[in-house]
Specification:
259 residues; alpha/beta; Rossmann fold; five-stranded parallel sheet; two-stranded antiparallel sheet; 7 strands; 48% helix
């Protein structure tokens, strides 16, 4: 009887191991696909032609309200903040107003600007020591560090240690009231920890993102250096202005050269 039970246990362990390996292989495959798509968008974002800037700006001016944008429309386009992916989730459909000839979605720049205004009002309810920002995507590391330099808000790049805000026994455990993430998928560990704590999350969200459990979103291209840099520049500048903190950095300090 005991021998039979041992065989059952070994079989159960083997099945569990098989499932784990299968799950890891699937996650690895998904990660590769996302990486390939990201690289493509990053390359396109680097080469926004003057003609495209002019055409997109002209089209936006025809449809948008007369309210002045947080930065010139041309700079939004130069930074490719408006470029989405070929995938559009139901959550993000309302922010898209057309597709390009290559199939990429185009996010409504007026809505990006509107949501950035809301985001600034949202984060300025908190002091810098109550907030942390996570950006695992390499394209955003430099601008994330500039964001930290300007605002004093703690930033995690490269890797966010899971459980660092939920597990009291961890040596580097800390508590914050607001989490800012640059991609709900890439930064899912920080998102999941914040969900467990039932605290608010502000996230940059591309057209392929799902936004469950996210309190406030900024619809934008969250794949490329210039776009992430542009969004973090606007957030940092707005936060510092509201908090009466000195701010001397320029857009190019976050994005790199725009020409």
């Amino acid at each position: 009887m005991q021998e039979k039970q041992e065989k059952i246990n070994i079989k159960s362990l083997a099945e569990e191991l098989k499932q784990r390996i299968s799950k890891q292989q699937t996650e690895k495959k998904d990660s590769t696909q996302i990486s390939t798509e990201d690289k493509k968008i990053q390359e396109i974002s680097k080469h926004i032609s003057k003609r495209e800037v002019e055409q997109e700006t002209k089209e936006i001016k025809k449809s948008k309200t007369e309210r002045e944008t947080l930065i010139p429309l041309e700079d939004y386009i130069k930074c490719a903040v408006h470029l989405g992916t070929k995938v559009i989730t139901p959550h993000m459909r309302k922010y898209v107003y057309k597709r390009r000839a290559d199939g990429l979605a185009v996010i409504n720049t007026a809505l990006i600007d509107e949501k950035l205004r809301e985001a600034i009002k949202f984060i300025t309810k908190y002091e810098s020591e109550q907030i942390y920002l996570v950006c695992k995507r390499e394209a955003g590391w430099e601008s994330a560090r500039k964001f930290e330099e300007a605002t004093g808000i703690k930033v995690f790049t490269k890797k966010y240690p899971p459980g660092i805000t939920t597990n009291l026994i961890l040596e580097d455990f800390f508590e914050k009231e607001l989490t800012i993430i640059c991609d709900p998928w890439i930064d899912k560990n920080a998102l999941n920890d914040t969900i467990k704590l039932k605290k608010p999350v502000l996230s940059l969200c591309d057209t392929n993102n799902f936004i469950q459990h996210i309190t406030n979103i900024i619809p934008c291209n969250n794949k490329s250096k210039k776009s992430i840099g542009c969004v973090l520049f606007i957030l940092a500048r707005g936060y510092c202005q509201e908090k009466k903190l000195p701010f001397t950095l320029k857009l190019e300090d976050f994005t790199g050269p725009l020409e």
